[in-house]
């Protein structure tokens, strides 16, 4: 071995290629990075073999390195593997191709070591002695047929890789084309140098400049790595994206014929690509004709027995080569939009219903309060006692309607308890037995071992009663009503098809009738308050609104399945509660026949003049001294001037300007220790409930409407509780 003028340049080329190999290996998670690193390692090996070949001083040494140079046959295989992986082929397919492609280079490398026996690679090799230090050893050889086979095979592998890259060049985003072009240039430089050497057109006689050209390739690959992010970001072929797209894609040529279709479109249209390719697009999808020149079209297809909606969008391809038709599944989006709009509408209706119920309760307070005063003054006069009692009964029925509105608006005051649905449904059915005609059959299908639920017992009763009565009216009193309970574990698949639901363990209550069913128009307004299909005077339109509110307050949901002429099923899902059922003992409280009286001073705060004056009269009739305030600031002023003069504050929660809770905290801040009763047309719940029993908060709650007896009893009870504590 000896130093030659080519030693240092070859070492530099080997170093550059080695650095590129290391950089490629660092990016090995990217497709093709490992194969590219292997190819660059073979380049380094090829350069070092060339260095030793040019440094040889004897024929035997020269021929040894010639034989070693056939290891470079793996370079073509590594190049092919890289281009295939870079193009997006699977590792499994590429491995099979690489195994087949490596057969020829392996056989050739083995045959080189037995060339003296067959002389198929070279037939003679004559060396000219070196005449000066550093001069190259001149060897004249006659190449055999296997050498040209080996060379042709290597060029075929290189050419195939180039074709793969060129084909992918037009199928990847333009941002990636710089990578491909740079890699192609980097590989073309040594390829051209080798061709020139084989045809004897090199500038240095007898020297293969291919290893030197790899130095220029390394510079180009550095540019690809750091300028175009080669191997950091590898493009995914758009054909793979097309195959994996959940949207249906159809490609039409300039004459409207179908030239490509992805698997999603095959599944949507129920066809096979083999059967439809080449057919007119309108034959495969008739809607393509009007959609090609107009806005998006909504289409409906049945997949797996389920009707699904799709938006058809048609866009022209570049250079007027054809059109691209896209089928986008919008079923879930439509369902979500519909449920969102329905939820928004129900929330708006709930807000309105709650406001109506609140104002209604204020009016009823005036009615019931004055009626209670009139009943006391009338004494035993039978001539007006009965009309007054009937008026009070009508007012309390109106209060019941207001309570139903509050339940729908979720402003009610639920007292949830642990219940067994089977037992509760049976007790409710027994209580309304007289409302079910003999011509109607009730079939019970109760699941044994039913899980417990947490729900207000009264609201559950209202839920069952309204569903049963609704079914009775739907069947005109004749038919079969089936009540079914079961344990269900709601899974993610069910949630995807019913956006209003939640996964987890639930107890299902189903009420099914054999009535005439409902139309879609009726179904859209089913749970709205005051909506009814019954004749005037035969229903309030609040029954199903109460059902909706009760289910919502119990953190459940209700699904209605119906069809005109085929009956209706209401499926109510209530969350499972793992606490044991506790026996509920009804607390029967004997009605007070005598008004509770007192002598203390009560401050009444209310912005309704009618309620303000009525409360004052009722309390004064019970012996109390009454002070009044028409708003929050007035009440604060009274306490500031003489806090010890007030023994109890009756405070309305809903007032303009300074709200009831703001007044309460301000009075406590001023040092008011008198008990405070809060009153509202809303039921006890939410923010109101947070104030009652809280340290420094309110001492009790008096719901509107109330009578004189109820007012005086609540005031007396609160005062006595404070005095004895």
TrEMBL record:
<keyword id="KW-0067">ATP-binding</keyword>
<keyword id="KW-0902">Two-component regulatory system</keyword>
<dbReference type="Pfam" id="PF16927">
    <property type="entry name" value="HisKA_7TM"/>
</dbReference>
<feature type="domain" description="Histidine kinase">
    <location>
        <begin position="355"/>
        <end position="578"/>
    </location>
</feature>
<dbReference type="Pfam" id="PF02518">
    <property type="entry name" value="HATPase_c"/>
</dbReference>
<keyword id="KW-0812">Transmembrane</keyword>
<feature type="transmembrane region" description="Helical">
    <location>
        <begin position="211"/>
        <end position="228"/>
    </location>
</feature>
<dbReference type="InterPro" id="IPR001789">
    <property type="entry name" value="Sig_transdc_resp-reg_receiver"/>
</dbReference>
<feature type="domain" description="PAS">
    <location>
        <begin position="241"/>
        <end position="278"/>
    </location>
</feature>
<dbReference type="InterPro" id="IPR036890">
    <property type="entry name" value="HATPase_C_sf"/>
</dbReference>
<keyword id="KW-0472">Membrane</keyword>
<keyword id="KW-0547">Nucleotide-binding</keyword>
<dbReference type="InterPro" id="IPR011006">
    <property type="entry name" value="CheY-like_superfamily"/>
</dbReference>
<dbReference type="InterPro" id="IPR003661">
    <property type="entry name" value="HisK_dim/P_dom"/>
</dbReference>
<dbReference type="InterPro" id="IPR036097">
    <property type="entry name" value="HisK_dim/P_sf"/>
</dbReference>
<feature type="modified residue" description="4-aspartylphosphate">
    <location>
        <position position="652"/>
    </location>
</feature>
<dbReference type="Pfam" id="PF13188">
    <property type="entry name" value="PAS_8"/>
</dbReference>
<dbReference type="InterPro" id="IPR004358">
    <property type="entry name" value="Sig_transdc_His_kin-like_C"/>
</dbReference>
<dbReference type="InterPro" id="IPR031621">
    <property type="entry name" value="HisKA_7TM"/>
</dbReference>
<keyword id="KW-0808">Transferase</keyword>
<protein>
    <recommendedName>
        <fullName>histidine kinase</fullName>
        <ecNumber>2.7.13.3</ecNumber>
    </recommendedName>
</protein>
<dbReference type="Pfam" id="PF00512">
    <property type="entry name" value="HisKA"/>
</dbReference>
<feature type="transmembrane region" description="Helical">
    <location>
        <begin position="181"/>
        <end position="199"/>
    </location>
</feature>
<feature type="transmembrane region" description="Helical">
    <location>
        <begin position="147"/>
        <end position="169"/>
    </location>
</feature>
<feature type="transmembrane region" description="Helical">
    <location>
        <begin position="37"/>
        <end position="56"/>
    </location>
</feature>
<dbReference type="InterPro" id="IPR035965">
    <property type="entry name" value="PAS-like_dom_sf"/>
</dbReference>
<dbReference type="Pfam" id="PF00072">
    <property type="entry name" value="Response_reg"/>
</dbReference>
<dbReference type="InterPro" id="IPR005467">
    <property type="entry name" value="His_kinase_dom"/>
</dbReference>
<dbReference type="InterPro" id="IPR000014">
    <property type="entry name" value="PAS"/>
</dbReference>
<dbReference type="InterPro" id="IPR003594">
    <property type="entry name" value="HATPase_dom"/>
</dbReference>
<keyword id="KW-1133">Transmembrane helix</keyword>
<keyword id="KW-0597">Phosphoprotein</keyword>
<feature type="transmembrane region" description="Helical">
    <location>
        <begin position="62"/>
        <end position="82"/>
    </location>
</feature>
<feature type="domain" description="Response regulatory">
    <location>
        <begin position="601"/>
        <end position="719"/>
    </location>
</feature>
<feature type="transmembrane region" description="Helical">
    <location>
        <begin position="6"/>
        <end position="25"/>
    </location>
</feature>
<keyword id="KW-0418">Kinase</keyword>
